[in-house]
Each structure stands twice: as C-alpha cells, then as structure tokens.
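U., I forgot to send this yesterday:
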Amino acid sequence: MADQDGSSLFGRCNFAFVTSKDLSETLIGELSQSIVKFGGEVSPPKRDGSLPLADITHLVSNTIEFPQYDKAATMMIPVVKSKWISASLAKGKLAQIRPYTPDPRMIFSDVMLACADIPGTDKDTIIGATMAMGGMYSDQVTKLTTHVCALSMDHPKVKMAKDRKHPCKIVLPHWFDDCFKLGKRIDEGPYTLPNPEILRVSSDESVDAKESPYLNGAVTTKPEYLPPPDSSRERSLHLTVFEEKKLMLSKDTDMNERFKSIIVDLITKAGGQITESPDDCDWLICRYRDTEEYIRASQLGKTVGNMAWLFYVIQTNTWSNPLHRLLHYPEPRNGIPGFEELTISVSNYGGEARIYLENLVKSAGGTFTKNLKAENTHLITARDNSEKCEAAREWNVHMVNHLWIEESYAKCQMQSLTVSKYTHFPPRTNLGEIIGQTFFDERMLQDLYFPSNAETTAVVPVRKRKALDITGENPAVESSDPSPAAGRPRKQFDIKRDANTDNAEMVALPPPTKRRSTEFATPARGRHVRSGKENETPSSVTSSSRSAKDKALGRLSTLAPDIALYEKEKKRGLKDGQPWGGKRAADYIEREHLNRRQASSPSPGEDKEPPKAEKRPTKKARLPEVEVRVILTGFKRWVNDPQKEDTDRKKLRDMGIAVVQDGQPCDYLIAPQLVRTVKFLRNLSKGAIILSSTWIEECLDTKQVPDPEKYVLRDKENEKRFGLKLETSIQRAQENNGQLLAGIPIYCTAGIKNGTESYQAIAEANGAIFMVYGPRSGSTIKPTNPEDDEGGPDPVYLLSTSTPEEKKLWKRFEDMARRGNMEPRVVASDWLLDVVMKQEIGFDKKYLVSNFFI
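Result:
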C-alpha cells in the first residue's frame, strides 16, 4: 500500500465515474475518497448529466453501455473498471490499463494467468493470445492469480496454489484453445482439474443449457407488450433515463394510437420530449433501415433503436447501445442477401435462446422450421450431438453454431461456412451460454444503409472531427475482424478546418465506395491452375502492386512530420515524467497541423514566403493544489447556463477551489438558504460547515478567496419556519457522526412522490435501515420477545402519501409490525426531513398520514 501521508499516487489523475448496476453511488463515494486521499481529483458530471471528458484523464466504468464511450475512446481517455483503482492502491503505483477494460470483447480482461507443466511452444501461444485478449501473465503463482494452466496436479506451482489456498482455478490448456477458436469465453467448469469433465464424461451425454444474460429484453425486434421493471429497480420506479431527451417515433413502428399514447405519456412524464424531426431528436425509434428518418438520423450520429430497445431502456431505466444487441437495432426490410434461399432449423438451444434464433433467422430473410427436413439447408446447433445433428449428417445439411447467423447479421452479409469457429463445438459445453454477445459491424452498416452523398451528407461536430482528423479513424466504425483484439480501421477524411473557431460547425464526409450485391455472397472459387514458372507473377498484379507501393510512399511522406513530432514529444514526455497520449497529445499535434497549414497557405495576393519556424508552445502551467473542496446545492447562478458553469468552475479551480460531487469529502457545503435538498441533508448529517452561496459569488466576482468564517450561513426566517437553530443542528450532527437513526428501520412506499432514492440517501446517511415496501413485499421484520421491550415496543416507520394505492398497504404494514412486536407509524416524508434537519429524533402525531394529509 502506498504511504498514507501525502501520497501522490493519483497526483496527475482526474477521474470521472459512470454510475451503473455494478458501480453504485455508495461505492463511487468510497473510491472518490481514496482518490482524493492519494492526490487525485474527481470531476462530477455536468448539469446535463454528461461527462466532462475535456478535463479528465481516466474514466471509471464497469460497463461500456453509456453514450460517451465512443467519444472517450476517440479522445484516447482510458476507460477502466473500478477494480483498477483498488489494484493501483494495492501495488502502490498505477496498474496497467488493458486488463481492466470493461469492453466485453476483451474476453480475458480479468484473467491473471500462470502456466505449470505446459510445453514451450504451447505455453507461448497461450500466454500471447491471453494477453492480446486483455489478460495478464505472471511466472509465479500469487494471490492475484486467477487461472493456472496445467496438465496435472503434480506440478510445484499447482501444489503451492493448493497449499496456500489461493482462490484460483486449475484448468487444462484445452479451455484456452476452445476460447481462442470461438473468440468467446466459455465456462471453465468442464476443464477444471483434478477431475475435468471433458476427460471423464462422454461427449454424447447431454449438457444442461445455461441462460445467457445478453438476451434479456433482446429476443425479438417487435415485442408485443412492455415487460415489468427489473427486480433491481423495485426500489426505484421513477424513470430518469428520458430526462432532457428528444425522441422520434417513426411511423413504421406500426403502433396503434392507444398504445402510442401510453408510450408518449410515459416518456413525457419522465422528462422527455417527442419530436417529428430526425434533425432535432436525440433518439430515433424505427423498425426498418430504409426510411428517410433512419438514414438522416444515422448520418447525424443519433442513437437509433427499435421498439425492443425502447422497452429495454424503460425496463432497466438505463441507456444501452442498440448496436450491441442484434435485435435492438432496426432490421433490413428485405433481409440479408442470400438468406432468402435458406431454410434453417435449430437444435440444442432452449428457452429465450431458441426464440432469439428463430427471430434472427426471420430478420435475416431466411425461412425457419421447427422440425428438420431433408429440404433444410442449415442446422444451427449448440452442440454436435442430437437426433437433428445425426439427421443433418445423413442429409448433408450444413451444421453450424449460432456465431454464423449472428455474424452474418452483424456484418450484413452471409459469412463463409469454411470459417472454423462456426463449426467448432467444445465437447462438454452448450454454446447457448455465450449467445447474444455479437456486436454490429458499424462500418458495414454505414456503407450499406446510410452512405454519404450529395443530398444527405454525414455531419460531424468540430470537436469530434478534430480528433478524427488527428487519429485518422472513425470511432463509430469497427474492424470487421471478429477478434476482440482487432484494432479499428484507419480512414482518411478531407476536412476543411477553421483555425479561429471551436464551435460545433458541421463538415461533410466523403461518400464511401459503392459495393456490388455480388460482393456479399460467399463465392464458389474454382481452382486456379497456372503453367510456367511457379514464382511467376502476372503483369497486372505487378503493376497494381507498384501503384499501391507508390501511393503508400506518398502517403508516408506526408505523415513524416507527424511521426517525427510524435516521437519527439513522446521522448520529451518521458523525460519530464509526463504521460503521453489522450487530449494532451491530440491538442498538441492539432496545433502543429494548423501551424503548417497556415504557413503553407498564404492569403490571396500575398507572396508565398518560406515557412518560419514556429516557436514551441510553452508548457501549460499546472493547476494550483486544491485548498478547499465544496459541494453546492440550490446554487442559482448557473441555472440553464452550462457554458457559464464550466467557465466558473475553471475559475474556481484556478483559485484552488474544487467543486466536488455529492458523497465526496468536502470542507464546506454551499447553499443560498436553509433548504431540504438531498445534498443539504446528507452533508448536514456529516456535520459539514455550511456557507452562504454569497461566498462563491464573491470568489468569482473578485477573483479572490475571502475568509469563509465571515460567510457562515444565517437564515433566521427559515430557522423559525422549521423550528430549529442551524448552529445547534450542526453541533448535534458532529456528535451523532452520521448515526442519528442507527438501527431504526424505515420503510418507504415504492410509488412515493419524487422516488425512493432521495429518501434512501438521507436515511442511510444517518445510519437508518432503509427498505422499499410494495404490494408484493413480504414480512421482513424479525419478531422480538415482548419481555425484552422494557420501555415499550420500538417504532418502525413507513413513509407514505395518501393515494388510494398506498392506503391499501397501511394495514398490511401495521399487521407485519405488530407481529414483530414493534409499533407501526405510517408517516409523511416530512417527518424524516425534519428529524434530519434538526438532528434530533422526535415524533409528533401531526406527521401521521391520517393527520398530515387532511
């Protein structure tokens, strides 16, 4: 562990977090404290919820399902799992980035490999491929080792792992081999020593199919009903995913007016808007890829999904990329070329996987049959052992796994059956466990369905365009190489740059090359027989080769200054101890591009002079150390003006004042008056000193930091209104140390106004036991012995309103409390807010819902 006193482990790092199911606000708060403790900074999201990518060096997320992932990748900002922070703290230095990527295509990203008795060549192959797919290798077995590749249990490394009880898996090299062949990570169970299933059980015996998590809400392109929310969202039924989003519902969704009105009402109540223009929308919902709105929205870089995707977003209350699930994206109206002639059946897949494959075959344009017949052309199977498989062999029916149909659909063209991974079946694995993991090939989608042309050109904002121009690639376009380790293809753009503006102007991209329909079929190639010398090269090939070589040399000569600049700057960065890459590298190379173009392009009528040597830009001064960390609530200066907010935050940071996110350590809480916001009450519970927002105003207006003690918040009017004295509340909070409500159970109805999250945050900040109570909630109060209750039964609270739905819950809650020998109190939420504001437990019958809502 790095030293505790003034460690600068994260001294050059500025982090931002992406909240998800696996990365809660509580965990983010804990990690933020560690980052700040070891010299780093944490930047909160902007007011519109977007991430401040221009200011950060690292993005912490346990998923790639957030809107700015592609932009972060374009800006070369590393996206890492939360485990990376823990690993860096444990090592006392910044850990490697690659093994902690959240990209699911890096299938070995959490594997730390050690090899035992593996032959040299095989060992090198396994190590190289594992590291290429996100894993790490260690020659020794340590506590961090997750997998030991061995042929037996007799090797000293294996014995040491067992003796020291390391929680690692001892697997045969066959597991790595099968994973490499499929390009997917399968379960290690059948390959685990000392008694591996693949060596003791016949491959003919049945294998239980496992459900794939990637099919949740993605088994059809046109769902017939809206599924209920996830169980993980039972505590929060308030939709937030549509806030400040504009949606367009295309006419080809074929919704009836009643159902459409329900969807529209749901979106608008959740803070979204409905628009009729693809230019104005943020998200387009449509069914097919040939409509004008689809083409326009895709060219503008909007999020485009179908009804299944919209329902999934509503169900999970989180944004996801529709390109990452095949049936969440609009389907081709006429299918994939060549599939109209295919008749396909399925074997060894069950449940949702079978339904998913049936719908995928139909969307691709093929004919699906439940039973296998001699007329069938293909059998998609999860294993190569079943009655259908035997029949397919007899009738010469092509037998493939689901990767063939998935990648054909994802790449918009039928894939060749000669690719080995499509016909690979591990002996004791049902491939249904890895179904649904294939992403769309975005480059093929663009080339085929929304290419640029004179009438409708793709447009890209200047900020994004600059990054594309420097890196020479499109972040929205992936390589067609199915390997997770494959890079993105380089693509050249002819872009006119404005040196004096940073506004989001739009620039046209060149149209892609047209593709003939015959290019998408798998051709039957004849054997080429040539007479004469074996090494003779046809003249046409020679000419083409020379032409390509000349072009490459010409292109290389234009890139030579950039290459030299990169190498020079990289060495300088290493010498100064500065990291190279990301926004810093992109901005510097961008300025050098601009200087050369200005020097080489004189104004009209001006004589062209030799370019003068540009003076090297001075190194940007480092920001001052953070002296004060503040949390703002109710601050009105930046309302509806995010640009002013960004400018003011930078001014404050230049003065040593950092505006941090709620949940992080802070020196002061800033508020215009006594308010009952979540931020105010949570930080009051920690005993934070509260300053008037006038202090921030003075800092920004005078560019000086006045004495904070002169700006301690005083609000006599609201103190009288709430019946408290703020100074006394802060003193009590410091004494309570966040344990005012420790051990007190507080329930909250699921449909309470403003959602349950805010009340949960306030209650848990004071040590309460918080639970959501709904129509299907069971008895969760453990009965106590009445004889132990010397001063009477302890109270248990239910926060509720007086709606008819919530009234139905009162009696059942009261019965549950009395069965547990506790006193039920159904109260308005104001009871919790007033108790926390005063930092003193009290109760008055006026808070009972029967009295409060009269």
